[in-house]
Every structure is written in C-alpha cells, then in structure tokens.
Task: inverse folding
C-alpha cells in the first residue's frame, strides 16, 4: 500500500499527542478550547494560560482572585520556547517575576518582552521584581495603579530598549531611574500624576529617540530637563498643565523632529524657544491659550512640515511669521479669533503649503475693487493666499466670508478640497466651479446662499467633477436656479459640450423657498414654474422672465388701459405672454406693431372688445383669451384664420346672439379638434342656453320655410346665369380684367404664371446644404445651364452680395426666381439656413397661389420625424423628384419654367396642377 494512505492516520495521531503533551505539561491544569485553566482550590485562585505563535508567546490571566500572584501550585510545566509574556488582571507577586516565570517552566533569560496590564489591588513595586530578567528589551506595565517606582528597579534590565509605564499613579520619579538602562530608545510615561521631572532626567541616554510625557501634571518646563538630549527625535508633552517654559528648554535637542505641546495652558511663546530645532518636522501647539507669538518664532525651523495652532486665542499674527517655513506643508490655524491674514505671513516665492485650515475664525476677505459680489472679477493680488500655488486643501469654515475667492479656480492648480461651510456667502455662479483638478469637493453648507446663477451658454470644462455640499442654505426658487436645477436633476442643458459633472452629495436635504414661502426639494423642483422679475418693463406693467420656454410674461392687468401698450425690442428667441385682463381696451389694432410679432399668449379678458379684426391677430399667436368682453360675432375671415391654426381659445362670458348669424360660429365650435377651453361658458346672450346645445334649425328656423327654399333656388339660377355671362365677358375683356384683379389682389389663380414672373431675374434658386455642393456644382447646375433649354440659376456663392444679411438675401433670391429647387438630403435637414430658404419659398408659393418649389430627394428620404411639417406634406403627396430616377431629367425640366413655344399646349394641365398644389399647401399650412 502506498505511504500517502497513512497520512490521515498520522495527522490524527500527532494532534492527539499534542493535546496530551499540552494538557500534561502542567499539573492542576485542564485544557479547554486551547486554553489551560489552572485552579488552586486551597488558595481560591484561578489562572488561565494561553500559548500562541508556535509557543513563543504566553498569556497569563488572573480570573477570580484578589491575592498576590502565586503559581506555586502549578508544577511540571515546560515552555522552553517562550520569549514574550503578557500578564493581565493580576496583583503583584510576592516574589520576583523571574521566579514566577521560572516556576512556569520558562527560562527568564529567554524572555525579551514582558507586559503587565490591568493589575488589581496593587502594592508598591519592589526593586527585586525584575530580578532574573537580564535580557529584557521591551517592558510594558500599563494601567496597574502603581504609585512608587524604586530607584534601582531597572538594575537587572540593562538591555532595555522600550519602556512603557503608562496609566499609573506615579507622582514623583527618582532622578537616577535610568542610570542602568543606557541602551533605552523609547520611554512612555503618559497618563500618570507627575508634577515635576528631575533635572537632567534623560542625561546620558544616547540612544533615546522617543519620549512620551503626555497627560501628567507638568506646569513648568525647565531648561535643565532635557540637558544633553541631542538624540531625541520625538517629544510628546500634550495634555499637561504647562503654562511656562524656559526659552532655552529645547536648546540641546537639535535632532528633534516631532514636538507635541497640545492641550496645555500656554498663553505666549518665549522668544526664540524653537531657534535650535533645526530638524523639527512636526509641531503641535493646539488647544492652548496662546495670544501672542513672537515674529521670529519659526525663522529657524526651515524643515518644519506640519504646524498646528488650532484652538488658541490668537487675534493677530505677526507679518512674516511663516516666511522662512519653505518646507511647511500643513498649517492649522482653526478655532482662533483671527480677523485678517496677509500674504506676507506665508513663504514667498518658494512654498510647499498644501493643507491650510483657517476654520472657525472671524476672517472676511475684501471684495474686489468695484465692491461687487461677483467673485470671479476680484483682483488676484488682493487675496492673501494667491501665491500659495501648491494648496490642495483649504478649510475656511465658520468665518465671515461673503464670496468664493476667484483664486480657487484661477490660481490653485492642485486644489481638491474646499470647506467654506458656515460663512455668509449669498451667491455663486458657474465661474466659481471651474476648477483645474479633475475632482474637487466644495462644502458650502450653512451659508446664506440664495442665488445659484448658471447660464445655459457657458461652456463647461470637460472631464471635471465638482462635489458640492449645500444643506442649510436659503435658496430662492427663481429663474436663476433654473440651469443649476436642471444639472442636479440630470436633465440636459443648453451647453455646447454637455453638462458639467456636478454632484450634490446632500441633495435630499437641499431646498429652495418659493414665492408662497413654501420649501421645495431641489431634486423635485418643477422647473417650468421658475421665473424672475424683470426690472425694466412697460409702463406700470410687471414683467417676468421664464427660462423654461424663454418667455417674457408681461402683466398689465387692472391698470385702466384703453390701448395695448407698445412692447420693447426683444431678442428673436424670446416669446411674449401678454396679460391685459380687467382693463378698458376696445380694439386689438395695436397688435399690428412689428414688436407684437413675438406674442404667443394673449389674455384680453374682461375688457370692452366688441369686434376682432383678423388682421390684428399676430401670426405667432398660440393662445387667445377674450372672455368677458362684448363680442357678438367672429367674422368669416377670422374664423378662416382660426380654422387654419391650432390656437387655444377662451371665448366664454360674451353676449353671443343665438340667431342665423351665429350658424358659422356654431359650426366652428363643433369641429372635434377645436381647442376651446371654456365651452361651458359660451352661452346665448340671455345667459340661459349653451350655444353648443343648439343646432342650425334652433338658431335659424326661417331657412326651413318653403318660400325661403324657392327664393334660394331662384337666387342660385340667377347666380348661374351671372357666372355664364361673367365667363363670356372675361374672355372678351380678359386683359383689362386681369390687370384689375392683380392690382386689387383678387382671384390671383386667374393670372397666368407668365405675367406674374415676367420681371423675375432667375429661372431657379437652388437651396442646398454645403455638404452637397459637389452634386450641385458638378452635376445639376452644368446640366441646367448648358443644355437646351438653358436656364438662369441663382447660387449662394455666385450671386449673393457679400456683407448683406443672409435672411434678406434668402428672401431676395426666392422672390427673384421662378422656381426654388430644394436638394433634400440628411445634410439639408441639419442645415439651419436650408430650413429658412425652404420656408421662404413655401411662403412665396402660398402668396402667389402657385407651386414654385421643386423638391429633389438626394439620397434616402429622411425620416418624417426629422422633417418640417411642410416638407412632410411634399413627401407624403409624392410631389418630389428622386435623384437616380430613370426619367429624372425629363421630370425636372417639366417642373421648370417652360419656354414660350411649349407653354400653349400645356397651359391647361399646368393650371390644374397649380390648383391642386395650392390646395395641398394650404392644408400643410394649417
């Protein structure tokens, strides 16, 4: 059988032997869960032994007794490999610890680390307690309630390197305590009750590197305490009662790197107290009562990297106080009473300062030279930190700062964390967040911020993240919060390169207050309701700007107006909502002003209107409210205009007559798609019946009588005869009639295209995207201009006058051409000017009542969702020519203006086509 098959049996046997060995190693001890429990029934004591780290560490715990440590009842123990011992919860033994260890089967000379912790009912230490532990290197006696340390206590431990006698009750220590520990490197005497350490207490300890005397009762630091201590690198004197120290107390500590004086009672620093600490790296003077620091205190500490003066009573700092600290990286001045800081205080020009804490002071920075709040305009030289270009963290919380300093995003290239919480900032804008680092955290909690003004058109910095904290501010829900709220809610904004990556970490606790004094969650804010008051308005009216739809809301209600006020000139992208309710306006003729062309929402309710002229209605109007006036009818031309639009109407509470004259109005209201908001308020003049509940017979029963019918038939016969005679007369006096019709703009369909186009300069104007110019210039134009019949073509680059407005040249080109050829492609859909050219041509065709547009589909037909609704009509009715069609050139020349010798034969068909296209265009316009 192979030998590996015996392996499980061998492992189980080894484990059992190990248990037997450990359990049998000490008499009067039982093994349970890897722990030996040893009970002295006679003495009423119980101990636990725990062997760790492959037998090199022994833990001895006293479980339940108040008597001195006594393990004499344990015998036959054998722990030859133990090097480290930890005794916990025991009293001092009546014999040396060396004897205790030896009785447990451990060689005292092998022990290098010895810890006694959490002792109970302790007596005083005796000088023999460490006898036999000659090779001890680490001694820790922590939290044992020890009061007296004998002068000769360390005589046996001449090899001691590390000593920790912390959390005891020592009040005095022998002057020669360390005479027999020449190799000691670390001394920790923290949390005792020592009031005075002996002079030259650490003398001749040439290997001593670290001293911890914190949390004692020291009140005075004598210059003799640290005599001949040139090797010490770390000194902790924190949480004592030190109120005075000699100016030369550290004169022999040229190697000192870390000095902690935190939590004492110092009120001032002695002149030159740190002048010999040329190796000092870290100095902590926080939580004292310091009011005064000499100007030269840190002139010699040129290697200082960290300095904390937190929680003192400093009102002012001397000029040039840190000027020599060129290696200073962290400076903490928080929790003082500083009102100003100056650039002269800091290292210039060489600086390493990367962490600066000025929180919880009374600092306020001067505004810019114009004394305005816009922080990004502030002169850089006015800011005291403007030359500390290595800063990464700036903490300025709980001061009196009123704006975000511009140096944060114009000078500090490495800045990553800014804390401005608890200040008096009322405003910030997009410029305040344009930092250089890829990710910056800005804490603006608990300020007085009311306005966060972002602009849709300000381009962001790509690949930057700003993490904001905004809880505890008083944001105002108005239009200035619009763009910022869109970003916070993850909605697209009008930024050319995409929205900036702004994360508000406490967004669930950020609110704004609306006009009704209600708090709104910023992440749930209805952006369509945000408005701002416009200071300059019309007369006594009030104006609001609503950025959601770029709307100017002009409110002129209850002003006693008799005429519509003139609007001011506005940018072309602004629409106007005009509220004129509760005035005395009797006519809308003032809306004919060009400035009214941007009105989309008009409310003229509760005025004195009795008539509405169709020419008074702006083409841009989408909502019309004329409730509560004196209207009795809507003219047929006005009804026609309303039929061709999707205008939303409010017509109630007018004295509508319920008679024959209202039949057209009734039919108008009965159209299913009609958008009237108040059908229930459109009643007969007597105020009882709803107009919609009536029919034509109810309105005009007269039309149903036989005599009326006979009369109507007679009239129809008469009109027929009149039409026949009129037709004959027309052909006899055709030329004169056409001139009269054209002059009075009547029946333009009766005028031939030749007469209308007689003075047009070009046969065709080509509208196309510049991306398709190769097709136009190399294929289309040469073919049309060189082959018979030859056409005169108008092109952008050839026939336009440089410098003139593009919109004017588009209109002139369309009016001067008999046709407009649209090269419809995916590129054309993306062309803004192409869209304007098509609309101009379509408008001209509707005006002339003739089809002037030739659509050439170049490439695939774009999806209808991307097409203007007028273009959709041309595509849906197949009134286009497809490039690549076998008869493309025949169809194109047929659609172009015909030469005179071809027109006679095709006049009838052409006129028919024109009428059909005019009908189609009219539907498209609706």
Result:
């Amino acid at each position: 059988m192979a030998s590996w098959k015996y392996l499980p049996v061998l492992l189980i046997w080894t484990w059992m032997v190990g248990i037997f060995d450990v359990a049998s190693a000490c008499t009067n001890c039982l093994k349970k869960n890897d722990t030996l429990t040893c009970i002295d029934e006679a003495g009423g004591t119980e101990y636990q032994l725990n062997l760790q780290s492959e037998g090199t560490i022994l833990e001895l715990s006293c479980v339940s007794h108040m008597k001195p440590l006594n393990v004499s009842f344990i015998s036959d123990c054998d722990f030859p490999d133990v090097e480290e011992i930890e005794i916990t919860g025991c009293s001092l033994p009546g014999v040396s610890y060396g004897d205790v260890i030896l009785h447990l089967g451990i060689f005292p000379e092998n022990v290098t680390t010895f810890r006694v912790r959490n002792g109970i009912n302790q007596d005083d230490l005796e000088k023999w307690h460490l006898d036999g532990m000659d090779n001890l290197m680490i001694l820790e006696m922590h939290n044992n309630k020890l009061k007296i340390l004998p002068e000769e206590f360390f005589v046996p431990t001449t090899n001691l390197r590390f000593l920790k006698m912390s959390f005891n009750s020592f009040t005095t220590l022998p002057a020669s305590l360390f005479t027999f520990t020449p190799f000691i490197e670390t001394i920790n005497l923290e949390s005792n009750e020592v009031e005075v350490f002996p002079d030259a207490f650490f003398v001749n300890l040439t290997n001593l590197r670290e001293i911890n005397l914190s949390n004692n009762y020291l009140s005075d630091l004598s210059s003799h305490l640290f005599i001949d201590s040139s090797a010490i690198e770390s000194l902790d004197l924190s949480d004592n009662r030190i109120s005075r120290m000699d100016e030369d107390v550290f004169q022999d500590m040229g190697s000192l790197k870390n000095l902690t004086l935190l939590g004492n009672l110092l009120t001032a620093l002695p002149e030159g107290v740190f002048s010999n600490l040329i190796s000092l790296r870290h100095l902590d003077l926080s939580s004292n009562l310091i009011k005064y620091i000499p100007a030269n205190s840190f002139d010699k500490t040129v290697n200082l990297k960290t300095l904390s003066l937190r929680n003192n009573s400093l009102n002012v700092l001397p000029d040039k106080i840190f000027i020599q600290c060129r290696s200073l990286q962290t400076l903490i001045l928080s929790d003082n009473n500083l009102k100003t800081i100056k650039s002269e205080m800091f290292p210039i020009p060489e600086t390493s300062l990367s962490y600066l804490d000025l929180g919880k002071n009374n600092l306020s920075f001067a505004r810019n030279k114009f004394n305005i709040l816009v922080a990004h305009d502030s002169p850089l030289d006015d800011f005291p930190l403007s030359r500390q270009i290595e800063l990464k963290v700036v903490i300025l919380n709980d001061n009196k700062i009123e704006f975000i300093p511009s140096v944060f995003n114009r000078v500090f290239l490495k800045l990553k964390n800014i804390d401005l919480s608890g200040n008096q900032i009322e405003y910030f804008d997009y410029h305040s967040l344009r930092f250089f680092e890829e990710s910056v955290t800005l804490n603006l909690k608990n300020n007085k911020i009311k306005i966060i003004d972002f602009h849709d058109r300000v381009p962001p910095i790509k690949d930057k993240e700003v993490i904001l904290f905004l809880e505890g501010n008083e944001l105002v829900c108005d239009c200035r919060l619009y763009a910022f709220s869109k970003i916070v809610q993850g909605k697209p904004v009008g930024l050319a390169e995409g929205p900036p990556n702004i994360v508000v970490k406490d967004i669930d606790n950020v609110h704004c207050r609306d006009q009704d004094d209600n708090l709104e969650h910023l992440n749930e804010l209805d952006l369509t309701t945000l408005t701002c008051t416009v200071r300059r308005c019309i007369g006594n009216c009030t104006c609001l700007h609503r950025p959601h739809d770029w709307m100017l809301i002009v409110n002129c209600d209850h002003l006693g107006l008799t005429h519509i006020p003139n609007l001011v000139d506005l940018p072309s992208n602004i629409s106007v909502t005009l509220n004129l309710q509760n005035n005395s306006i009797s006519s809308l003729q003032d809306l004919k002003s060009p400035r009214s062309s941007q009105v989309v929402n008009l409310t003229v309710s509760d005025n004195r209107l009795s008539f509405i002229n169709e020419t008074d209605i702006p083409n841009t109007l989408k909502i019309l409210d004329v409730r509560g006036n004196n209207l009795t009818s809507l003219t047929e031309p006005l009804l026609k205009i309303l039929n061709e639009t999707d205008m939303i109407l409010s017509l109630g509470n007018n004295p509508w007559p319920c008679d024959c004259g209202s039949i057209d109005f009734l039919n108008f209201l009965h159209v299913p798609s009609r958008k009237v908001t108040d059908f229930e308020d459109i009643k007969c003049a007597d105020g009882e019946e709803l107009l919609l509940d009536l029919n034509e017979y109810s309105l005009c029963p007269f039309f149903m009588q036989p005599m009326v019918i006979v009369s109507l038939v007679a009239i129809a016969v008469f009109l027929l005869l009149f039409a026949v005679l009129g037709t004959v007369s027309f052909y006899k006096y055709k030329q004169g009639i056409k001139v009269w019709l054209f002059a009075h703009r009547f029946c333009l369909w009766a005028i031939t295209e030749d007469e209308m186009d007689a003075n047009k300069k070009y046969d065709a104007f080509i509208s196309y995207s510049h991306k398709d110019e190769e097709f136009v210039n190399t294929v289309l134009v040469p073919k049309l201009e060189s082959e018979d019949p030859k056409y005169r073509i108008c092109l952008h680059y050839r026939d336009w006058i440089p410098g003139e407005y593009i919109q004017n040249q588009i209109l002139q080109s369309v009016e001067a051409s008999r046709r407009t050829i649209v090269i419809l492609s995916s590129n054309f859909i993306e062309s803004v000017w192409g869209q304007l050219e098509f609309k101009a041509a379509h408008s001209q065709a509707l005006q002339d009542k003739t089809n002037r547009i030739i659509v050439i589909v170049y490439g695939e037909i774009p999806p209808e969702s991307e097409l203007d609704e007028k273009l959709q009509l041309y595509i849906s009715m197949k009134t286009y020519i497809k490039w690549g069609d076998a008869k493309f050139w025949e169809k194109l020349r047929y659609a172009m203006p015909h030469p005179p010798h071809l027109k006679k034969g095709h006049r009838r068909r052409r006129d028919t086509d024109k009428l059909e296209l005019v009908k189609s265009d009219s539907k498209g316009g609706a």
Summary: The longest helix spans residues 706-732.
